[in-house]
Each structure stands twice: as C-alpha cells, then as structure tokens.
Amino acid sequence: MNFTTIAVDALGGDFAPSAVLDGVALALQRDAHLRVALCGPADVVEPFAASASAQGRVNAVVTTEEIAMDESDPARAVRNKKDASMVVAARLVKEGVAQGFISAGSTAACLVAGTLVVGRIRGVQRPTLAVVLPGKRPVVLADTGANADCKPEYLLQFAQMGRAYSSSILGVENPSVALLNIGSEEGKGSELAKEAQILMREQTANFIGNVEGRDILEGKADVIVTDGFTGNVVLKTLEGSLSFLLGKLKSIFMSTPITKLAALTLKGKFRELKLELDPEQYGAAPLLGTKGLCLVAHGSSSPEAIANGILVGAKAVRNDVIEKITIAIQQHSIAASTQTKEQAE
Amino acid sequence: MNFTTIAVDALGGDFAPSAVLDGVALALQRDAHLRVALCGPADVVEPFAASASAQGRVNAVVTTEEIAMDESDPARAVRNKKDASMVVAARLVKEGVAQGFISAGSTAACLVAGTLVVGRIRGVQRPTLAVVLPGKRPVVLADTGANADCKPEYLLQFAQMGRAYSSSILGVENPSVALLNIGSEEGKGSELAKEAQILMREQTANFIGNVEGRDILEGKADVIVTDGFTGNVVLKTLEGSLSFLLGKLKSIFMSTPITKLAALTLKGKFRELKLELDPEQYGAAPLLGTKGLCLVAHGSSSPEAIANGILVGAKAVRNDVIEKITIAIQQHSIAASTQTKEQAE
Description:
The structure is a homodimer.
Chain A: E1 4-9, H1 18-30, E2 34-40, H2 42-50, E3 58-62, H3 74-80, H4 85-94, E4 100-103, H5 107-118, E5 128-133, E6 139-142, H6 152-170, E7 177-180, H7 191-203, E8 207-211, E9 223-225, H8 228-253, H9 257-277, E10 284-288, E11 293-297, H10 303-318, H11 321-344
Parallel strand pairs in A: 1-2, 1-4, 2-3, 4-11, 6-9, 7-8, 7-9
Antiparallel strand pairs in A: 5-6, 5-10, 10-11
C-alpha cells in the first residue's frame, strides 16, 4: 500500500496549534500508511516534525502568513496571502504533493482555498460542502453552506458528488438520494425544489424522491441534497436540538440523590449514545468537486476531531472519491449533451 | 366578559370527527366564555350540539361537502366546494359570526380558505403560518410553510405579525425579532437573507440581528423569521430530532433490568420534559395576516391538541391580535410611503 499524504494547516482553529498537532499525532498512530505535510510557522512545524510523535512521517512546510478566523474578505485574503499556512496546504494538493488538505481555520477562507487554489474538477459548477450526519444510518447531507443560493443544476451535481462520497467513505453500494423538501409528494416545494425534483427524477441514479425534515435522522436515504442555506440551518438546528435535549437530561439526572443514582447506572449507555451522535466521529466536512479533497474542520475541533478528519480524508482518497466524482460529472455532461443534441434534432 | 366564538371544522384530521368533538368538549370545559360554531354533517354536529358536552354553547352549522386531506388542487377545492365544512367555518369568520376558525384538515386547503375566504388584512402581502416552539423560552417561528418562496418585504411583515402574536399569546412586551441565517455576522446569508437583514435593521422594532439554527431553542429572540421553505424544514427537523432522541432514550431504559429500574425513578421528570417539549401545548399553527384568526391544526391532532388550538385561538382574539397586526402593518405602510416621498423629494 502506498502512502497517502494529507496537508495540514497547523494554524487553523480556536485551539491551534496544540489541538492540531495532537490530532496529527493521533492520526499517525492509527494509520501506518499516512504521511502529513504540516504547514505553519517554523517554530511550530519543525520541532513537531522532528519529535517522536511525528514518527518520521511528517514533512515540515514552513509558512510565514496566517489567515484570521474572522477574515472579513476571505476571498481577498486567500488571493493576497500566498504564504498563509492554509493557502500553502491547498497549493500542496494542487501540485500533487498531498492528496487532500485539512484546516480548522475560517470556513469561508477554506472554501475559497479549495475552489480557487486546488481548483474545480472540470464540469463541476459549484463544489459542495457535505457532512455525514448520524441517525438510524449515516447520511451524507449536501450542501451545508458552500452555496447559499443555488440553481437546480447545482443540486443535481450535489447528488452525484454525495453519492461518490457515500460509497467511498461509508461503503454504500449504489447510494440512494433524496431531495430535502417541505412535502413528500411530487410537485411540492419552492421553485428551486420543484425544478430540482424534475431534473433529479430524470438524471439521478437511485433517486427516491422528496424527504422532509423529520426524515433526516430516520435513515430514509443515503444522500440528502438541498441548497446551502437550508442545509446549514438544518445542520445547526440538529446540533442545537441535540445539545438542548442532552442539557435537559443532565439537569433531570442531577435533580435529586435518587436520580443521580439512576444516572450512574445509565452512564455507560449514555456515553455510547453521545459517541454515536458525536459529529466529531467524521471529524471534518469535505468540500466535494475540487481536484483534491478539502476538509473543513470545525473551529472548535478537538484533537480527536482533527485526527478523524485526517483519517476520513485519507480513506476517501484511497477509495478514489475524486475519480468517482470526476467520472460521475463527466458521464452526466455526456448524457446532458446527448440529450440537448436529441432535443435539437 | 363577552363570548368568543370559534368556528370548528368537525371533519378535518385523521381522527375526525371524534377527536375534534372531544377537543371541543375539553375546550368548553376549560373556557366558560367560549362558544363554538361546529361545522359538519347534520348527523355529526346536531347530536353533539344537543349533548351535555356542548353545555348549550355549541351552534350546529350543517354542511354537505368535505375537503379531502389529500386534495390535489386545494385552491380549486376551496373555490368549488362552497358548502364544505372547512369553507363554511372560514365564511363564518368572514361574516363576523365567529372570530376565528380551526381545522385539522388539509393544511394547504386551510391556508387557501384563510387567505381567500376570510381574506387578507389590508396591506398584508402574504399571510404567514406561525408556530410557537418550546425551548429555553417559547419562540414564535414564521413562516413555517405558507410561503415557500419569499421576497424580503414578506419577511419584514412576518416580523411585524409575529411580534403581534407573541405579545397576544405569550404576553411578551416589545418582543425581540431575529432573522434565521447561516451566520451571525451582518451581511451573511443568501440573497434573500441579505436583503431582508437590511430592511429589518431599518424597519423592525427590537430587531436583534441574525440567529443560526443552533440558537432556535436557546431563547435568543421572541420571534424568528425566515422563508416558509426553511421554516418548514426547521420545524420538521426539530420534531424529527426530538423524537429520534426520545426513542434512543427509551431503548436505553429498556435495555436491562437495572436500567428499567433507573427509568422508573426518572419517570415523573421525563413526563414533565415531554410535556414541556410537546408541540400540542399550543395546539395549532395560526395563519397571521387574515381578517380573522385561522388555526391550522395537525392532521394527527389529539383532542388535547384541538382543545389547546381553540383555547389559544380564543386567547389571541381576546388579546386583539388582529387589531395589533392591522395597526403594525398600517404604521409600516405609512412609514414606507413617507420614506418613498422623502426619497423622491
């Protein structure tokens, strides 16, 4: 087995660089075929690369600039700060030195770096930020915020790219796809959802139709597509409602000596549940549709989340996610152009 | 105190007419100043009006038609079936015989009946379907599905109508308003959210800016506005995630004899939590912006939900929700026309 190299932005995130370095160390421990190109200031990346944690599999890439978490104009920052750790990490992917990059820095800047520096796969109109959600079975939700305003054709491509990711990461054969909508019946929805439905019925493999918000965790589809505004709101609503309910449970358990005792007997089971619902198990959200994998980690990522992000990214690369997306988009372009030709004739 | 009359569609809902009749009986028990105009077939409404449950405060309104739950063209059904129980209930509101109507029938038909039969308040561009969500404090979310595609001005009016409802039903003075968005910073979002933000900053009283999905249950604002597509998806995502998590808890509690015992000690507390989160406590979603209150109950409404819908509706009427909305919309129209004049000068 060859090595897979992931470029890591040492500076991104609320707890950088320590959470990032600890995450890299964990990932290297768990994956013997992983190499890391660690991008950041000399005093951060050089000592780490030389340390025992690096196991001789970390290449220190010294950078001199940094993109701030709250960069007001992320596109300009990515263009101007050519030696920022995030931009250099993206460039390593473009140059083929690394097969993917991960950053817990500004999400907006990360999306720009992916799209502009790594570059789109030919035929991809808009790369999409996907997330794997827990539930009765894991589901790939796309888009979760890369594209606040969408055209129906974008959603069609999100479905194709989501299918490629589902099969690469979760091993699902012929993943089913649903459109997030406000009614399950055909013809329902906003103008966007109505048009996307028609396109998807014609052109998306294993399209099962509309699903509603209440179906997301029910495992009705392997891939659920929506525009980035709705997807982002859904993702954060799920986060919010789970943490609200877990908070409520905690206060119930803490209310009396008897409930505290009851809580003790349930502790193990609750730990399992929290793990099962933990968004950190997939560590980072992949930007799909770029020529190498871009992994957007949460700003508050723990070392575990960073490690999982790196490992999931490496797995996706080994399972040829980029090739799968490229083929899916090409096949579709050919089908669409044949169709246009037929219509013209 | 005068009587408040609510017109009730006896035929709407999955468990009609029995759930509806039981709900009416409950509501009459709890509210001595309530009258009901019960619309439906003679063999349903006449015996009930004459029964002890009606307490002499139910007026039987015999109707001969019915709107199906899955009516494929709800607008045509409402126009054509002039003697359908739902349409007659709406007409009683238009004629001033009742101050509001409730139906657990087809939501789409109910929205049409509200807008076309009861009629919009002058100046209201689009009536909005609001819902009161539980959380750290109750929050009015609008729109939750009446308008899948929105213009920024609609959202501005949803805010005004939501404020009127919040103060009428929840007794909030000067309710705060937030825009549901994909980032808390100014300038974030889809084109719609960006434009709505600008309008709301200028024209919405007590506007606190953007909130994200994770803030919905956190009680950050009294009223949260969004387009009907996003709002509907959010509402159903919340429903889905709460029921998913409660299901998980149940299976944890049932897993061993010890956890069953632990569950017993927590039973009372869990019952309280379920009640607290129960959407049925507000019983029905009000359509705001029509000349009388239209209450859209869930198709699967229990008698408790129907009763609460009627009682909440009666309370809103007594607290002058319609007048409050009318004044808010008029004031805004005057302000907007003054502004336009000033700009022209």
